[in-house]
């Protein structure tokens, strides 16, 4: 019996009919909810053209929305790179055979996973200057907070991905004389990153949205500029929030689409890792190609 047969049983005629009915019912319920929201907004005059007119003017975009979006994307991009690096380093540290590496790495990861991101930003921006005795950059307060929290979550994801790689992969690599650092770098981490790509992308989406917390410490990101500043100048907070929400959805959808393209590309071109200057047995190559596919 195949794994698919165990995990999923294809629905029969009655189940298909029931699923179709439930789909129609929930679809109608969703349409009803959307219409109810629309009607309530219409009663309060939230669809009046005057409230949406500022978004048809170029100055609204060039003075508020675009600068806020650029600040959001800038902080998110730097935090993504640092979070991925943090996650890989500390996941490897948690898997170390040396207790003096494994225990501190685990303590760091668990601590920053447990502390709310907003408190991290607050402490870095307001508390860290007392330690370093100089003002803290708002940009780096946001980036460091995002890195510590999301990097800790990614560290656990990478660790789970590394442990999920079949043990035969590493055993075959050790058999041809590869060192542990080579096995980790050439065999385990690449396959873990590939298998955990959906989790990584999900966390990157969370990271992009979490940049909005920067407005608490006055970081000029999209929520600050696109909602607070626009609403303060035009008195249309609901409309501004809807526009910013759509922008966040488009950005995260583009990020998800990019990740899907990368996943398909790596599956097509996936090859077994190969140690430089050392032959790789046929068994290891076949296993690696199977994992890549």
From TrEMBL:
Subcellular locations according to the entry: Cell membrane
Residue stretches spanning the membrane: 20-38, 69-90, 111-132, 138-158, 195-217, 237-262
Region (Disordered): 268-293
Principal cellular location given in the protein's record: membrane
Any Pfam family hit: BPD_transp_1
Biased composition (Polar residues): 284-293
GO CC annotations, alphabetized: ATP-binding cassette (ABC) transporter complex
Domain ABC transmembrane type-1 span(s) in chain numbering: 69-255
GO molecular function: transmembrane transporter activity
Keyword Transcription: no
GO BP, sorted A to Z: amino acid transport
Family, per entry: Belongs to the binding-protein-dependent transport system permease family.
Protein name: Putative glutamate ABC transporter permease protein
Originating organism: Actinoplanes missouriensis (strain ATCC 14538 / DSM 43046 / CBS 188.64 / JCM 3121 / NBRC 102363 / NCIMB 12654 / NRRL B-3342 / UNCC 431)
